[in-house]
Design brief:
The protein is an all-alpha fold. The protein contains 45 helices and 2 strands. Strands 1-2 form a two-stranded antiparallel ribbon. A hairpin with a 5-residue loop joins strand 1 and strand 2 (about 840). It is globular and about 85 Å long.
Amino acid sequence: MKGLTLNCMDRKPEAYELVKLGLKNDLKSHVCWHVFGLLYRSDREYREAIKCYRNALRIDPDNIEILRDLSLLQAQMRDLAGFVETRQKLLTLKPNHRMNWIGFAVSHHLNSNASKAIDILEAYEGTLENDYPPESERCEHGEMLLYKISLLEECGFFEKALEELHRKESKIVDKLSYKEEEASLLMKLNRLEEAEKLYRLLLVMNPDNYRYYEGLQKCVGLHSETGQYTSDEIDKLDSMYKSLAEQFTWSSAVKRIPLDFLDGEKFLEAADNYVRPLLTKGVPSLFSDLSPLYDHAGKANILEMLILGLEESLKKTGGYPGRSEKEPPSALLWTLFYLAQHYDRRAQYDTALAKIEEAMQHTPTVIDLYSVKSKILKHAGDFTAAAALADEARCMDLADRYVNSMCVKRMLQADQVPLAEKTAVLFTKDGEQHTNLHDMQCMWYELASGESYFRQGELGRSLKNFVTVEKHYADITEDQFDFHSYCLRKMTLRSYIEMLRFQDRLHAHAYFRKAAAGAIRCYIKLYDTPPKTSTEEDNELAKLPASQKKKMRQKQRKAEAKAKKEAEVKSEEANVGGGSKHGKRNVKAVDPDPHGDKLLQIEDPLMEAGKYLKLLQKHSSDHLETHLLSFEVNMRKEKILLALQALKHLVQLDAENPETHRCLIRFFHKVASRPAPTTDAEKLILGVLEAERPTFSQLHDKSLMEANTVFLEQHKDSLMHRAAAAEMMYCLEPNKKAEAIKLIETSLNNPVSSNGPLGPVKEWKLKDCVAVHKILTSTFGDQDAALRWKNQCAVEFPYSTYFEGSLCSTVTTNKASKQVHENAENGTAEFVSLNGTVEKLDGLKNLAI
């Protein structure tokens, strides 16, 4: 008992010593084993805790408390067979307890035996009196009945489920769930007319629920999973939604849904009716609402013509076309706002910036305008100007947390990490600024920060952020523990099952995937370029001239002093903010490795990468990136068969992807260059590789060079495919370096299609051009070719800071500083803003700073 108390006081080593001493004195004490299990459970050592509970149950097999604790751990660890066994034992020992019946049923459901769970719930109902439940338990009992009906539906007993639902209607409190379940069952029983009436009734209750409209469409036979309809079906859907729109005049969904299936003139008319009220009202999220339509052929052009027509009419008459009433001045503002986002989506950044500038001149106080301009500049490649504009938007409303977060994100994209950190902590608790972001599980910040550090080459800090995100997911998995008993007690069974299924696919979430991929890339880079030891650094320093040695030592001293000062500031902040209202100090554990230096001091980075790779392979096997990383790791480990497995997955997912082509050629080129096998294992591996090669259609009866040429011919108009083919040409035949570089440089930036009245959109993407520049620099090592490519891309992307385009903020700032210097010599002063315009500073002559 003392050990348990000390464990609660966070004195864990002493607690373990005392409990082990108790076991030493009495090895057959079920209490000692139970407490030992509780200690392990508090440390999240669940498997060890289960062993301790099982030892306790050997001594006292009918102990209710130990059985209950064991069942919770079995549910947590998904030991479903053991969970069923323990729950059955609990029910046998205490059959008059409702929670034991429900727990036994749930255990069978989780163990993929829903029919047995139904039998258990029916047996439990047989023990109840006719007037059950009392008023205080009606909600819980109703939830149990709905859970039972959902089990019947899951087993395919639709008729029986519907009968049960009607029979128990008076005992079910949640009438909305009752109606939704009834409509679903009627539809599955093909009683479509009854289901249609129910869905129409549900729409009266909530006409903005998209699921009800989908159910109604299924009932009338007008639903398509692919979203493709015949002209006759479109006419029927159109008339149905028009009648619904007359009934639900205030509903937004009934006007928005037809935009997904209509086209041509009908789409134009429906979009016009939908857009006008929202522009008049001033809804900033209108573009986000309509953005899915841009993936439908031709609809983006129609929307462009529609909004341009509205803009022209508002400028000329102050109203919409065909109407004599004047619209409020803000209607033009939101029209320009929409158009700016529209042209940004179509990569026409000059036009987008012109529209947003016009909107800002119209009403300079709207924060959304600055945020959207920041977004446009980010897409155009000017991250520095985007961060500055986002900061300007933040300063306009210092109490808006969302705007602050967007500003932080832009700063991290511009690699301004210290500034981003100072901005982010404005919305955290005083005195706990840096740890608070971690406590809030602010994963978007940690991911963006990790990516920024990776770009800057600071692998330790980058890895620290990615690993922290992975720990958050471990915490989320841990957080389900308390619900195993709570949900059974409160009878929220449907939500409980849904939560468990969500937890089972938790690691498939996009944030975890990004963090794991980021960590693997860090470990790969760490393996490729291991950090230098102190001896190597001293040797390099000894080779330098005396003047450079002095500079290097001064730089090191300054860095050490800065780090020491930061540590002191953080310590002072902790001392100031460490007290609670009652005068007690809340001491938090200090992070011993804030910059991730210890994470870099590992013997085998690829082994660490393998831990994250297994999670990605298990939960994100349908993503190309997972198998690309698996290929890279296993090629470095010389695990040829595992690399082949990753390659087969890549070809299966996307055989025409340039990355897949790179891996295919690299793999078989590596195999061909291996020495002749000597051992039996090596001969066996070679036999497998020879048998597998013909299964790749790209290599069928072709050499690697021929396969590369065929790939180039098939994708000669794509920049990234040409770059991949050129890189593999150089890999296979290094003497063809000039030809490979020429292949990249002769790529044409062709228009994708004719996109509206303002001309075509070019095919090249900024990120692709940056990737090609890095290939020319690192793979080919040709600085002249890289410079030529940079100059070419600076013309194509004039706002890009990476390529130093003529309109990017770094170039205009340099021009501005030069102009200011020249004016200062002439005795005048001017100010150059971020967008390149020059303003007189006569009004600021007497300003004291």
